[in-house]
Amino acid sequence: MSEWTHDTFFRGRISLKQPPDGYRFSVDAVILGNLARVKPRHRILDLGTGCGVIPLILCYRHPEAGPVFGAEIQPELAELAAVNTRENRMGDRITILERDVKSMTPADTGGRVDAVVCNPPHFAPNSGRINPDAQKAVARHEISITLSELTAAAGRMLAPGGRMIVIYPSERLVDLLDAMRQAQIEPKALRMIHPGPNTQAQRVLVNAALGKNPGVKIEPPLYIRRDANSYTDELEAMFAP
């Protein structure tokens, strides 16, 4: 534990340990944790939870939501997520599962869930340079799971009409939407995410629903930075208590 770094959110209300050299979460997780649309008493599953950052943000932002489950295939990250859950006194709301998402069933979560959130590996098989760090490689590349396997798992775990909320590279948007539809998960809202003004989108937030009719809304864009030195007001609010 002494080799983990320590970070805080929401002016110290949430603390988080991370590996100093392995996979570390990015602003994508913060955006997803803040913008995922969940309701009171919604049962939520985070696929590939890493250090548990998204369940922690969701529980902080939505005190009446839960239970929340975080599934992670890498043992060292699953252990770290469990430590972060305990140290933030959220063990009564968050359950960390060391699981291969491909083989998960509703029995793992005591029944189907109302929402699945996910920040999937970004790179397709056999594309891009594989990071020599094993944690980063599994988190960033479709090594342990493909995009279609992930959406199929979401389809198995969701209750009818349940939501899947994903943040993903915009250049692979077509791949994501195709994989969702193969799992009968229908995209309902898209929000493009830009690094700053006058830049192309690099990420997209997709809100989809299991078994719903076609029809998608394009929401106003999200800009991360107003300039090189500062976040936009919307991003600043995501870090605020």
Explained architecture:
With 241 residues, the chain is an alpha/beta fold. It has a single domain (5-239), classed as Rossmann fold. Helix content is 27%, strand content 29%. Strands 3, 4, 5, 6, 7, 8, 9, 10 and 11 form a 9-stranded mixed beta sheet that branches. A two-stranded antiparallel sheet has the order 1-2. A two-stranded antiparallel sheet has the order 12-13.
List its traits.
241 residues, Rossmann fold, 27% helix, 7 helices, alpha/beta, 13 strands
Output mean pLDDT: 90
Using the 3D structure, state the CATH architecture: 3-Layer(aba) Sandwich
Low-pLDDT residue spans:
131-139
- How would you sum up the major sheet? 9 strands, mixed
The first-level CATH class is given as Alpha Beta
Class by helix and strand content?
alpha/beta
Number of strands: 13
Helical percentage:
25-40%
Give the number of domains.
1
SS strand fraction: 25-35%
Instruction: Tell me the series of helices and strands, N- to C-terminal.
Output: EEHEHEHEEHHEHEEEEEEH
Which fold name corresponds to the CATH topology? Rossmann fold
- Gap between N and C termini, in Å? 27 Å
Rg? 17 Å
User: Which of globular, elongated, flat, extended, rod-shaped describes the shape?
Assistant: globular
Full CATH superfamily name: Vaccinia Virus protein VP39
Count of DSSP helices?
A: 7
What is the secondary structure topology, with strand pairs?
Blueprint: E1 5-9, E2 14-18, H1 27-35, E3 44-47, H2 53-61, E4 68-72, H3 75-87, E5 94-98, E6 113-118, H4 134-140, H5 147-157, E7 158-169, H6 173-182, E8 185-194, E9 203-210, E10 217-218, E11 222-223, E12 225-227, E13 230-231, H7 233-239
Parallel strand pairs: 3-4, 3-6, 4-5, 6-7, 8-10, 8-11
Antiparallel strand pairs: 1-2, 7-9, 8-9, 12-13
